[in-house]
Structures are given as structure tokens and as C-alpha cells.
Automatic annotation (TrEMBL):
It is a multi-pass membrane protein. InterPro entries: MATE_fam, MdtK-like, Membrane_Transporter-Flippase. This is MATE family efflux transporter. It is found in: Cell membrane. It comes from Ureibacillus endophyticus.
Length: 460
């Protein structure tokens, strides 16, 4: 898909190209969430709700420790998009090589840290004793194999930065198929394999990522893809000051944002854990469903980031605001439709995962109270993606962190402990925080960012 030339054409062409790019991105999110849901159903219906709670208790810690790598990936996609948009393929490959070097270093550090301190941190988080050992064992497997996952994630990010959203979708499907096929074999010991129980889910995830990453690299070489791992990229796998400086300028605020979100989730799950393992399981399942609800907003933000970065690289700055407006329309249209479906079918959806009536009741309360506000989050993600793609990252990060730590976490604590809302007070904190963040981001976007001069971030 040649986004560069298409962006120079009339607006209908831009709309068509954005939708065509967005569809594979959205399907990627749907399929990824579906794969996680299938795994969760298998775990919940065979190993029980304690195993589900074990995964739920671990997730905020995992998200916290991979936040820096996600930030690096977010920053690199902007630089790849701008250099590709400018037609500077040599510089683009240099950006890819340097990013791989940074990603490898980070993944090794996080793997070692996670492997050594997982159980201690889970204890500090107040993880219930009946799921602590199982959660820690599952976590260590994923942490120690993080370099595989990080490299695979990085490469799919690079590919999207060039405007190719179909290839990541194809290989995500491959990964999900492999994972679902391996899951029962490794959990239950089929075909003479050892029965690893919940750890089998971790091993299946690791092996599917490894196999898919290898297949992806082979495919890119056979197709002579612009982002294939060739000699030029390999020779650039080192630390280069100017690129790292620009990359970190984008990545550090993004990473801090991710860390702030992860730490907030850690705080929230501590509040939730105090209500017992049923509440923990409900929280984990609703988070799985929330991944679907957030797909339109997240997909649109990815599309906006790529299109804006390439527009800047190609010198088509006049398209930037039009891209944002189109993205917002798509986010509200598809996001609103999806949220309505979940509201109408919340109970049958929850019964796919849960068997306890009490747990279903807790989960249903979370959905009813908070899911409408993901439309506000989608709006925030759209305007934030626009600003970040132009190199403006500091204030969006400050507003995000403020909404989380000054609004969400205190509200969750106060409403759940000092009102009659109980655990519903935790759920209500989400829409409150999303609304505050939207007001702050929009004011900055409208009154400050629109007055800035937009220019490329990387030069020869």
C-alpha cells in the first residue's frame, strides 16, 4: 500500500486508504484478543477460576515490566514512518537496526529482573495465597523468554510503519493457530508430552511467538519486503547517539505513560484483591472483554500515527488535521457499535468464561459502569497519536499520568473504601479519569499544538 503517493491525492482517496489500512489493524486486534479469549476459556473451563485468577494477578506486573519496550516500539514506528514517507530507505533501515539493539538490551534486563523478583512482587501486590505459586510459576516462564516476544513485536511495528498492515495480520493469524494448537497439548500432556497445566499456556505462547517470528523473517526475505532483515539492517544493530536520542525523546514519555498505567493497574488490583479471588477473576475477565471494546480506539490511533508520520515525511503537513478528524469519526462509529453489543449481551458473554454467579455479578457491574467511557478514551488516543507522531509527547504524557495518579487511583480508593459503592467504586474511577484526561488533552491540542510548526524528526 503506497500511502505516500495516496496522501497527495484528494480527500476521498485518503479516506479510502485509511480505512483499508485500518481494517487489517482492527482485525489484528480482534484476532489477538480472540486468541487470548480462547486460551482463557480453555484455562477457565478446565483448570478452574483459581488458574484464571493466577493469570489476572500476574498481568499488571507483566505489563509494567514490558512498558519500556512498548514505548521504544511506539517511538520507532514514528521514525520509521517519517523516514519511509520521505523515501529515505537507508535511514529507515538505520532506525530499525538501532531500535533492535535497544530492544534486545531492554528485553534481557527485563527478563532477568522479572525472573528473579516475580514472586516477591506478587506478594507485595497482595496476590491471594491460593493462587500465588501458580501465578509466579506462569510469570517466570514468560519473563525469561521476553527477548523472543519483544523482537517479534518490534518487527510487526516496523512493518506497520511502512504502511503495510496486512503482513502483521497474516502472521498474527499464524501465531494464534499455533498457540491454540499447542495449548491443550502442553497443558494436558497430549501425544506423550508432559502435562504442564497452567504453565503449558505459557510454553504455548512462547513457542508460537518463536515459530511465527522465524516464519515472518523468511517471508519478508522471499517477498523482498523493504523492511526485511538484510545485511544493511544487521550492520546497523548497534547504539548510535543521534538516533537513540530522538528515539528516547519519543519513547521515554511513552514508556513512562505505560509504566504509569501499569502501576495504576497494580494499585487497582490491590484494591480488587481485597475483595477476594472471585473479584480478581472477574476483573481479569472483564479486562479481556475490554480489549475488544478498545480495539476501534487503539486501531485508529495506530492508523493516525502511521499516516501522520508518513505525511510529515512526505511534506504533506496539510493532511495531518484531516487524518485526525477522519480517525475520530471512525473511532466513535465502530467503538460505539461494539460497546452497545457488549451491553446487550454482557451476561451470555461472561458465562463463556465464568461459572460462579457471584463472579459474574461482579464482572457485570464493571462492564455496566465503565465500558461507555472507552469512547472518551478513544478520543484521547486519537488526538494524542496525532501529537506524538509530530514529536509532541511531553504534555500528553503529563496529562495521562495526572489523570491516572491524581484522579483514577485516589478515586478508586476513596469510592471503594469510604462510600457505599464498595467494589463498584473501583470501576467508577475509570470513566472519571478518562473524562478528565480528555478535557486536558483536547485543551492542549486545540489551544497549543495547533499553533506549532510541524517538521520531520530525523534527517541525514
Amino acid at each position: 500500500m503506497d500511502l505516500i503517493s495516496e496522501q497527495a491525492k484528494p480527500s476521498i482517496s485518503l479516506q479510502k486508504m485509511m480505512v483499508l489500512f485500518l481494517i487489517p489493524v482492527a482485525f489484528s486486534s480482534v484476532i489477538q484478543s480472540f486468541g487470548q479469549v480462547v486460551s482463557t476459556i480453555i484455562v477457565g473451563q478446565t483448570l478452574g477460576e483459581d488458574s484464571l485468577a493466577a493469570i489476572s494477578a500476574f498481568f499488571p506486573l507483566f505489563f509494567f515490566l514490558i512498558s519500556f519496550a512498548i514505548g521504544i516500539g511506539s517511538g520507532s514506528s514514528i521514525l520509521v514512518g517519517q523516514t519511509y514517507g520521505a523515501g529515505n530507505i537507508s535511514k529507515m533501515k538505520e532506525v530499525v537496526g538501532v531500535t533492535l539493539a535497544v530492544t534486545l538490551l531492554l528485553s534481557v534486563i527485563v527478563a532477568i529482573f522479572g525472573g528473579l523478583f516475580t514472586e516477591s512482587i506478587l506478594k507485595l501486590m497482595g496476590t491471594p495465597e491460593n493462587i500465588l505459586a501458580e501465578s509466579a510459576s506462569y510469570a517466570k516462564i514468560l519473563f525469561l523468554t521476553l527477548p523472543i516476544m519483544f523482537l517479534y513485536m518490534s518487527y510487526t511495528t516496523f512493518i506497520r510503519g511502512t504502511g503495510d498492515s496486512k503482513t502483521p495480520l497474516i502472521f498474527l493469524i499464524v501465531s494464534i493457530v499455533i498457540n491454540v494448537a499447542l495449548l491443550p497439548m502442553l497443558m494436558f500432556g497430549w501425544f506423550g508430552l508432559p502435562a504442564f497445566a497452567l504453565n503449558g499456556a505459557a510454553y504455548a505462547s512462547v513457542l508460537s511467538n518463536l515459530i511465527t517470528f522465524i516464519l515472518l523473517l523468511v517471508y519478508l526475505h522471499k517477498k523482498d519486503h523493504v523492511i526485511k532483515l538484510d545485511k544493511e539492517i544487521i550492520k546497523n544493530i548497534h547504539f548510535k547517539g543521534d538516533i537513540i536520542k530522538t528515539l528516547l525523546k519519543l519513547a521515554i514519555p511513552s514508556s513512562i505513560s505505560m509504566v504509569a498505567i501499569a502501576m495504576a493497574e497494580v494499585a487497582v488490583i490491590i484494591f480488587v484483591n481485597s475483595y477476594g479471588s472471585e473479584a480478581t477473576a472477574a476483573y481479569g475477565i472483564v479486562n479481556q472483554i475490554a480489549m475488544y471494546v478498545q480495539i476501534p480506539g487503539m486501531s485508529v490511533s495506530i492508523a493516525i500515527s502511521v499516516f501522520v508520520a508518513q505525511a510529515i515525511g512526505a511534506g504533506n503537513q496539510e493532511n495531518v488535521r484531516q487524518i485526525t478528524k477522519l480517525g475520530l469519526k471512525l473511532s466513535y462509529l465502530f467503538g460505539g457499535a461494539l460497546i452497545l453489543i457488549v451491553y446487550l449481551l454482557s451476561e451470555p458473554i461472561l458465562k463463556l468464561f465464568l461459572t460462579s454467579a457471584d463472579t459474574i455479578g461482579i464482572a457485570k457491574g464493571l462492564i455496566l459502569i465503565s465500558f461507555w467511557s472507552y469512547l472518551l478514551l478513544g478520543h484521547v488516543q486519537a488526538i494524542s497519536a496525532t501529537m506524538r507522531a509530530t514529536g509532541v509527547v511531553l504534555w500528553p504524557t503529563i496529562f495521562l499520568i495526572g489523570s491516572i495518579w491524581v484522579v483514577e487511583v485516589p478515586a478508586a480508593y476513596l469510592l471503594s473504601n469510604f462510600t457505599s459503592l464498595g467494589i463498584n467504586g473501583v470501576w467508577l474511577a475509570y470513566p472519571i479519569a478518562f473524562a478528565v484526561n480528555l478535557v486536558a488533552q483536547y485543551c492542549y491540542y486545540h489551544f497549543v499544538w495547533k499553533k506549532k510548526t510541524i517538521k520531520a524528526l530525523v534527517y541525514d
